[in-house]
UniProtKB/TrEMBL annotation:
Pfam families: ABC_tran. Keywords: ATP-binding, Cell inner membrane, Cell membrane, Ion transport, Iron, Iron transport, Membrane, Nucleotide-binding, Translocase, Transport. This is Iron(III) transport system ATP-binding protein. InterPro entries: AAA+_ATPase, ABC_SmlMolc_Importer, ABC_transporter-like_ATP-bd, ABC_transporter-like_CS, ABC_transpr_FbpC, P-loop_NTPase. It comes from the Bacteria. The lineage of its organism: Bacteria, Pseudomonadati, Pseudomonadota, Alphaproteobacteria, Hyphomicrobiales. It comes from Aquamicrobium terrae.
Length: 357
C-alpha cells in the first residue's frame, strides 16, 4: 500500500522532473536521454555498477554540472533547460557527498548553522537545536569533524543538508565509507529521519541489497541509461532483462528449448512468457534458493559436489544429469546426506526466462 501511495504522489505532484536529459562525457560515454519523475516525500535509490552515470545524474540535478540538453524542474520550477540554468546555491537542494565534505574548521553546530546565515538568529538557533536532537548529536555539537565517528559524520552531514529545509536531498553513496556492521544501523536511522522530516530524497548506491531495503522506488542504470524503474519487489521479482535480473540476484542459468509456451530443460518444463519462435533456444534463470530439498521419490536428483556451511544457510553444488555446470542450491535446512545424493525440486513460479543471446 505504501508503494502505491508513493507512486500516486509521483503521478499527481512530481517534486522532481527530468526530461530528455543528456550529458556527453567524452567520446566513449553519454548519459541519457534520461526521463525521471519523483513524487513529494519519496525516497528513490539510483543504483547500478560503477561508471553507469548515477553520480553524474545527481550532479546534473544539483547543478554541479550543466546538461547538454534536456530539462530539470523542481516543484514546477525550471532549473535547467533551453536558456535556463539556476546556480546550485539557488536551487533549494541539499547535497550529502560521499566523503560528507564537512568543514573541518567548524564544529558540528557551526556546520549545520552554515546554511542558515540568512535566517534570523533565534530562528536559526532553534532549527539547529531541533536537527541536533533529531540526529542524536546534541552532546557532540561542540566537536569538530575529526573527533566524530564515521556514522556521526554522516549524521552531521545530513543535518547540515536538511538545515535550510530543501525541497529535495541528494545523497551520493552516503553509507559506503562505513564499516559493514555500522552501515545497516546508520542507513536505518537515516531513512527514519528522512521519513520524520517528510523529505524527498534521491540516494545513489551500487549495493543491490541497500537499494532494495532503502528506496520506495529503485532506478536501475546501465551505461548512461535507465534500465528499469519501479519498486524493489518489481525489480527483484519481475526484472526487465538479464542485466536487471543478475544485478539483484545470482542465478543458475540452464539452457532450454521453447515449445508450446514453455521452456523445456534438463530440469523440466517451466513457464515462459517470451515472444519466441517455436524451437528457439532460451535460458531458465533459477535462483539458488528456489532449489529446495525434498523427500519425494519422483523429485529431481543430483550428486553433491561440494558443501559450504555459511551459518544461517548452506550452499551446495549438485551434479545433475543433463547439465554441463553444477546446480547451486542454498537452503536453511540442516541436511543429513548419507550417500552423496540429494533429491530436490524447483518452484516453477520463481523461474525466469531470457533469450540465450
Amino acid at each position: 500500500m505504501a508503494d502505491q501511495l508513493h507512486d500516486g504522489d509521483a503521478r499527481a505532484q512530481p517534486m522532481l522532473e527530468v526530461e530528455r536529459l543528456v550529458r556527453r562525457l567524452g567520446p566513449g560515454f553519454t548519459l541519457g536521454p534520461i526521463d525521471l519523475s519523483i513524487g513529494a516525500r519519496q525516497i528513490v535509490c539510483l543504483v547500478g555498477h560503477s561508471g553507469c552515470g548515477k553520480s553524474t545524474l545527481l550532479r546534473l540535478i544539483a547543478g554541479i554540472e550543466r546538461p547538454d540538453s534536456g530539462t530539470v524542474r523542481l516543484d514546477g520550477k525550471a532549473l535547467a533547460g533551453p536558456g535556463v540554468f539556476v546556480e546550485p546555491e539557488k536551487r533549494n537542494i541539499g547535497f550529502v557527498f560521499q566523503d560528507y565534505a564537512l568543514f573541518p574548521h567548524l564544529t558540528v553546530k557551526q556546520n549545520i548553522l552554515f546554511g542558515l546565515r540568512k535566517r534570523p538568529r533565534e530562528e536559526a538557533r532553534a532549527r539547529v537545536a531541533m536537527l541536533l536532537e533529531l540526529t542524536a548529536l546534541t552532546a557532540m555539537a561542540g566537536r569538530y569533524p575529526h573527533m566524530l565517528s564515521g556514522g556521526e559524520q554522516q549524521r552531521a552531514a545530513l543535518a547540515r543538508a536538511l538545515a535550510p529545509e530543501p525541497s529535495i536531498v541528494l545523497m551520493d553513496e552516503p553509507f559506503s565509507n562505513l564499516d559493514r556492521d555500522l552501515r545497516e544501523r546508520v542507513r536505518h536511522e537515516t531513512i527514519a529521519l528522512l521519513r520524520r522530516t517528510a523529505t524527498t530524497a534521491v540516494i545513489v548506491t551500487h549495493d543491490p541489497e541497500e537499494a532494495l531495503s532503502t528506496g520506495d522506488r529503485i532506478v536501475l542504470m546501465k551505461s548512461g541509461q535507465i534500465v528499469q524503474n519501479g519498486t524493489g519487489r518489481d525489480l527483484h521479482d519481475r526484472p526487465a532483462d538479464r542485466y536487471a535480473a543478475e544485478f539483484f540476484s545470482t542465478f543458475n542459468r540452464v539452457p532450454g528449448i521453447y515449445r508450446g509456451g514453455a521452456l523445456h530443460t534438463a530440469l523440466g518444463a517451466f513457464p515462459c512468457r517470451l515472444d519466441l519462435a517455436e524451437g528457439s533456444e532460451a535460458l531458465a534463470f533459477i535462483r539458488p534458493q528456489a532449489v529446495c530439498p525434498c523427500m519425494a521419490l519422483d523429485g529431481l536428483s543430483g550428486a553433491v559436489r561440494s558443501r559450504s556451511f555459511r551459518g544461517e544457510i548452506e550452499q551446495l553444488e549438485l551434479d545433475v544429469e543433463g547439465l554441463t555446470a553444477p546446480l547451486v542450491m542454498r537452503t536453511t535446512q540442516r541436511l543429513n546426506i548419507q550417500d552423496g545424493k540429494l533429491r530436490f525440486r524447483i518452484d516453477p513460479e520463481t523461474v525466469l526466462a531470457f533469450t540465450a543471446a
